[in-house]
UniProtKB/TrEMBL annotation:
Protein name, as recorded: Threonine synthase
InterPro entries referenced in this protein's UniProt entry, alphabetically: Ser/Thr_deHydtase_PyrdxlP-BS (IPR000634), Thr_synth_N (IPR029144), Thr_synth_N_sf (IPR037158), Thr_synthase-like (IPR004450), Threonine_Synthase (IPR051166), TrpB-like_PALP (IPR001926), TrpB-like_PALP_sf (IPR036052)
Protein family per UniProt: Belongs to the threonine synthase family.
Named cofactor requirement(s): pyridoxal 5'-phosphate
GO molecular function, one term: threonine synthase activity
Catalytic activity: O-phospho-L-homoserine + H2O = L-threonine + phosphate
N6-(pyridoxal phosphate)lysine: residues bearing it: K112
Organism of this sequence: Paenibacillus albidus
Every Threonine synthase N-terminal domain range: 2-80
TM segment ranges: none
Keywords assigned by UniProt, alphabetized: Amino-acid biosynthesis, Lyase, Pyridoxal phosphate, Threonine biosynthesis
Name of the encoding gene: thrC
Length: 468
């Protein structure tokens, strides 16, 4: 297995080099040169596997034996050993047609833990084996930052800097990041929105001299390993739905940056027989507009009750577009150039028909989000966070008669109590979250300017060279 760039101007890489590259050096995103297909017989054999065993089966297709099996096994079991649920991502049945995959049982109570606990172990492993410093740089709309920091805090040979939009994440999300006082962690609170933060990150990774000098590595879903790790729980969800024989299984996914839903697209290409992949978003509905009209055009930014999806430029969209063009790097590059010069991408005809075959999408308004939270609390005694509520609303819109829907619960409701409180629901915070409010914060507030961020990074990195 080799990995190539969506834009076609990077020499094929192995697994570890792909991990370390993150954003491709030509500005594209790394993808496998071919996608392995799991047979129906093999899929059936996987039903009895634990989450960790399933993880190892899927990753074995992609690692090229660059990591000895026992080392990969140790990383997998260490990564998921601190999850509060022994199943890692338990499947909860709410009705005969609706299941919820709970992805919030990791240390920061959000789905990002599932991939980032492993990525922290993987980066630490690579740092030790290659005796190299790793400087992780990422942007977050709320959950990635906390999960990434938790995954690498205190680890030797690794420093991490996370940019988050100042005042535009939930209070708990902010505290989970900024109450960490480890010397290898830097939090930059950026005046602007998530797209502003992400643009700075992409500009820095595109500066190949700076990227090389300071050993920058990606933790965001621009890194293919994030996508691959998330693919595992699509398989897990499908394999753990009761009474699904002969029924179509749809999955509804709260999505802002297109990474989580693209993991499902990858799972389908690997042979997982899913029905609809349903994109749930909010008023920042660029993905809904693309699916319905074929126009991908960033609009005006809106703050919502589901802030982790307050995104207008979906970084992983390029990966999907690459496959939509038939893996034509030239055509893909033309689309991305048009986005840069004209501010939009437009597709039509058979390509649009394919998009609408691959996905359904719904932009959920703030009030509908709150109404859904109240409805499911009253009818099922099940408290949804606002992002999961968007996923449930999209499930209700698109799940057909006799079909089964699985909605991903991407965060614990305690992370978004500002929204929950609006409908007079009082929740009891988990002890780990309640403790955050008494802790001091550590963050630096900066403008959304590349040079301002560079100054902070240079001070943080110091004069460290390439060898520890």
């Amino acid at each position: 297995m080799k990995y190539i760039s969506t834009r076609g101007n990077v020499e094929a890489k192995g697994f570890i080099d792909t991990v370390l590259m993150g954003l491709a050096d030509d500005g594209g995103l790394m993808v496998p040169s071919e996608i392995p297909v799991v047979s129906a017989a093999e899929l059936e054999e996987w039903r009895t596997l634990s989450y960790q065993e399933l993880f190892l089966k899927i990753f074995s297709y992609y690692t090229n034996d660059e990591i000895p099996y026992e080392d990969l096994k140790e990383m997998a079991y260490t990564s998921y050993g601190n999850f509060r649920a022994p199943e890692v991502t338990p499947v909860r049945k709410l009705s005969d047609s609706l299941y919820v995959l709970e992805l919030f049982h990791g240390p920061t109570f959000a789905f990002k833990d599932v991939a980032l606990q492993f990525m922290g172990e993987l980066y630490s492993y690579i740092s030790r084996k290659q005796n190299k410093i790793i400087h992780i740089l990422g942007a977050t709309s709320g959950d990635t930052g906390a999960a990434a920091i938790q995954g690498v805090r205190g680890k030797e040979g690794i420093k991490i800097c996370i940019l988050h939009p100042h005042g535009k994440v939930s209070r708990v999300q902010e505290l989970q990041m900024t109450t960490v006082d480890d010397s290898n962690v830097l939090n930059l609170s950026v005046h602007g929105n998530f797209d502003d933060c992400q643009k700075v990150i992409k500009d820095l990774f595109a500066d190949l001299d700076f990227k090389s000098k300071y050993h920058l590595r990606a933790i965001n879903s621009i890194n293919f390993v994030r996508i691959l790790a998330q693919t595992v729980y699509y398989f897990y969800a499908y394999l753990h739905v009761e009474g699904s024989a002969g029924k179509k299984i749809n999955i509804s996914v709260p999505s802002g940056n297109f990474g989580n839903i693209f993991s499902g697209y990858l799972a389908k290409k690997m042979g997982l027989p899913l029905g609809k992949l349903i994109i749930a978003t909010n008023e920042n509905n660029i993905l809904e507009r693309f699916v319905n009209t074929g126009e991908y055009k960033p609009g005006d930014f809106t703050s919502t009750y589901s802030p982790s999806m307050d995104i207008q430029v979906a970084s992983n969209f390029e990966r999907y577009l690459y496959y939509l063009t038939g893996e034509d790097s030239g055509k893909l590059s033309s689309y991305m150039a048009a986005l840069q010069s004209e501010g939009k991408i437009t597709i039509d005809g058979t390509d649009l028909e394919q998009v609408q075959t691959d996905f359904a999408a719904l932009g959920v308004k703030n009030q509908q989000c709150l109404d859904t939270i109240g409805k499911y609390q009253n009818e099922f005694g099940y408290l949804l966070d606002p992002h999961t509520a968007c996923g449930i609303a999209a499930y209700e819109a698109f799940n057909g008669e006799g079909e089964i829907g699985i909605t991903f619960a991407t965060a614990h409701p305690a992370k978004f109590d500002e929204a929950i409180a609006l409908i007079d629901i009082k929740q009891e915070f988990p002890a780990q979250i309640a403790a955050l409010f008494a802790m001091p914060q550590h963050q630096t507030v900066v403008e959304h300017d590349k040079e301002a961020v560079v100054r902070e990074l240079k001070a943080f990195y110091g004069n460290e060279g390439s060898v520890r």
